Each structure stands twice: as structure tokens, then as C-alpha cells.
# Entry
Amino acid sequence: MTLTTQELLLVSWNWTAKEETWAFDPRKTSLPHPDEVAAVESLSTSQINTIVLEHKWKVVRKQRNDLLVECDWTQGADVPNAIKSSWTSYRQALRDVTTQSDPDNITWPNKP
# Structure
């Protein structure tokens, strides 16, 4: 499933062109400033695809990190091993999410 526009806005865009750093989706066609237009026009299709792919992985990592934070409590010293071990596997599966090949088709692990 392709990442939604809302998901893509979870983290800031960040790319460089014409010796400047830009913070918008380089696929945008309606740009308010001529400098933005020039920056996008200076990119090849391959460069735009690379920027978009890197951004999608940033979004996936943000989602993964949020899920890890939600279950940090499961790894405390006072948590029984029976609970801790099942969550440990889940947390490792979350860490492994970024080894998948396509940020638009992530297989997310199920919570215990």
C-alpha cells in the first residue's frame, strides 16, 4: 500500500538543489516561488525519485520509532519475563522493518 499524503507529512522533507536545502515534495507542480521552481527543474527524474524514496523511508522509520516508544514499558526491569520476551520479539521485528525492500509495502508485525 502506497504511503498516503498525510503519512508523507509526518516528517519534514529535506533535499538539496542549487546549493540550497528545500523542505517540500519535489514532485509538486504548483510552486509559489520562482526559486522553488528552479530548484525542482534542476533535478532529474532519477534524483526526484531518490529524494522521494529517501523521504518514504524516513516516514517508515518515524512510524516504527513511534511504535517502539509505545511499548518501551515492556522492557522495564520490573516487567515479568513472560511479558518481556513476547514484546522483545515484536520490538526486534519492528527494528527489522527497515530491511524490507519497499517503503510503500511494509509488512508490519502484530503486537503480542
Q: What stands out?
A: The first strand starts at residue 15 and ends at 17. The first helix runs from residue 5 to 8. The chain has four helices and two strands. The chain has a mean pLDDT of 93.
